[in-house]
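[Automated response] Your request has been received and processed.

Submitted sequence:
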Amino acid sequence: MTIRVLIADDQVMIRDGLAALLSSDPGIEVIGQAGNGREAVEMARRLDPDVVVMDIRMPEMDGLAATAELADSPDPDADPADARPKVLMLTTFDLDEYVYEALGAGASGFLLKDASAADLVNGVRVVAAGDALLAPSITRRLIGDFARRRRHQRPSPKATAGLTPRELDVLRLMARGLSNAEIAAELVLAEQTVKTHVGHVLTKLGLRDRTQAVVYAYENGLVG
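Generated structure:
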């Protein structure tokens, strides 16, 4: 399947460069470009992309506010796990606080602005598939710290009571950053079975994707 991508950045040269790099991949189609967060939200609602490559710092509405709006489905009965689009944040990581806010807003992944073309294409594919987290060098540290910051904001709910023991095992392994194939090997299950468990976990907990599942697991003390 072709991955439909919307690019949001206030600098024309960066937008054009990203579009050229992504369009060079036969499995990716760039369907639009936005110059600020407000345009990104409006175009995403109209064009229905699979992934929005979103800069954090933009005029009128920044990437954090735009991501939060996109995370709110207009259909209250929609399955959070099926909500679209996924957001891939572009950041310099000069301030980790932006990453914490992006996680809270519903971002699915992060990519450094100086990443290679191959990393950009792979990042879009990873986020579109919801199969893994980006930037392994920052995931567990940032997500773990983010969860510790937020843990006091809500009590540890017994929300996991709705999960089966196997689904809980899968959630914990997801939080360790394992892919479906790695979880299957760890639990001696078929990869398709793991995929089914992941879907059940997201649906039962009302989560959008694996990134949010990892944050949830850290927040609620399921992993340390």
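Summary generated for your ticket: The chain is about 50% helix and 10% strand. The longest strand covers residues 28-34.
If you did not submit this request, please reply to this message.
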